[in-house]
Write a structure and sequence with these properties.
Keywords: DNA-binding, Nucleus, Transcription, Transcription regulation
Subcellular location: Nucleus
Radius of gyration: 20 Å
Main location: nucleus
Distance between the termini: 8 Å
Number of strands: 7
Protein name: WRKY domain-containing protein
Organism: Hibiscus sabdariffa
DNA sequence: AGCATTTGACCCAT
DNA sequence: ATGGGTCAAATGCT
């Protein structure tokens, strides 16, 4: 462990915890309809905490130490590993060298993974043409043991042309058939999904269509995304965190986009970040093109990517992971909220987490 | 013709 | 041995 990072990590955790506590206070205040001033103050404090945390993350940069490939996609969300991927890893590579196949498989396994739960409304059922700006191609469907509905497998259309290894799985919920659990793996590296989305067919769709930002510029927008995400109720799921996959699952409440948008206008993160593009970073409800599976995001994939990547970037697995996995094992629940540590871990609010040596 | 989906088979991890 | 994930030929659609 690097001492410098330990210290920053401690501060980071401290800031995050503080932000979480403040958010809880805010929630209480909202429940009790407190004054707007105190609410604003809390919001500012929360934002300040997360900003600090983000700055810590940002200035640390990628961990230079050789790491397992699980975090190679720290900035782009998709591994930029030297592994040679030719898009046809199976039969072709088998002939050439089985090593390649293994590495491809390994790479795929290491892709960050997160899950989004989305609810299908009758409206979206009818619209049927929602798009998240990314182009998916279905490559498989399987009946899953114990699941009522089959699971569908999608990959980025531009896997071969742009070496984009993003995939997603869509699984209809047994309990609530209107809910689709979408598991994403890897972030898009293709330009298509993140360039300006083609003009929508109707003004209504324009409202739902996101202008996806370019992945290459993701870094600039990460902070905005994260702040916005947090402000709108970030949920972190550990689905898939089976102690091998490090990427936490980020789930955003399926709030209506109208609400998100209107709220966002008043969101000003202390002037440090230009949030003028935040609106554009959100993806609309969508339906996978030409598929029978309905799904839509409540928040853009890139947002979830970004946050997961931020947490992964530095591979400071120990503490954040520790917090998460500890709870996972304690509850044995596949899904849990990020706010668990504050409920289950007794923290002295006055404790100085950035005390040198605390995390070493 | 070109692209997407379907679906049985295969591979791999457990 | 089994289940999940992926491939790729067959088929469908535009």
């Amino acid at each position: 462990m690097e001492h410098g990072w330990n210290w920053k990590q401690g501060t980071l955790v401290s800031e995050l915890i503080q932000g979480m506590e403040l958010a809880k206070q805010l929630r209480l205040q909202l429940d009790s309809a407190s004054s707007a001033e105190s609410t604003d103050l809390l919001v500012q404090k929360i934002l300040s905490s997360y900003e600090k945390a983000l700055l810590i993350l940002k200035f640390n940069g990628p961990v230079p130490v050789a790491q397992p490939q699980q975090n190679v996609g720290a900035t782009s969300g998709v591994p930029e590993s030297p592994l040679s991927i030719n898009g046809s890893p199976r039969s072709d590579d088998l002939d050439k060298d089985s090593q390649d196949t293994r590495e491809v498989s390994k790479k795929r396994k290491m892709l960050p993974r997160w899950t989004d739960q989305v609810r299908v409304t009758s409206e979206s059922l009818l619209e049927g043409t929602h798009d998240d700006g990314f182009s998916w191609r279905k490559y498989g469907q399987k009946d899953i043991l114990g699941a009522k509905y089959p699971r569908s497998y999608y990959r980025c259309t531009y896997r071969h042309t742009q070496d984009c290894w993003a995939t997603k799985q869509v699984q209809r919920s047994d309990e609530d058939p209107t809910i689709f659990e979408i598991t994403y793996r890897g972030a898009h590296t293709c330009a298509h999904g993140n360039q300006g989305v083609p003009p929508p067919a109707s003004p209504k769709k324009q409202e739902h269509k996101s202008t996806n930002f370019n992945n290459n510029n993701n870094q600039q927008l990460q902070s905005q995304d994260i702040l916005f995400s947090l402000r709108n109720g970030l949920r972190v799921n550990t689905e898939g965190l089976d102690n091998k996959e490090m990427a936490p699952s980020f789930s955003f409440p399926s709030t209506s986009f109208g609400l998100l948008k209107s709220e966002n206008h008043s969101f000003s993160p202390s002037g440090v970040l230009d949030n003028s593009n935040i609106l554009n970073s959100f993806s609309p409800p969508f339906m996978s093109p030409a598929t029978s599976e309905l799904n839509y995001f409540s928040a853009s994939q890139s947002q979830m990517n970004n946050f997961g990547e931020m947490l992964n970037t530095h591979n400071s697995e120990s503490d954040l992971k520790g917090l998460i996995s500890a709870n996972t094992s304690a509850t044995n629940s596949p899904i849990m909220d990020l706010d668990f540590p504050l409920d289950q871990v007794e923290l002295d609010p006055c404790f100085q987490f950035d005390t040198p040596g605390f995390f070493s």
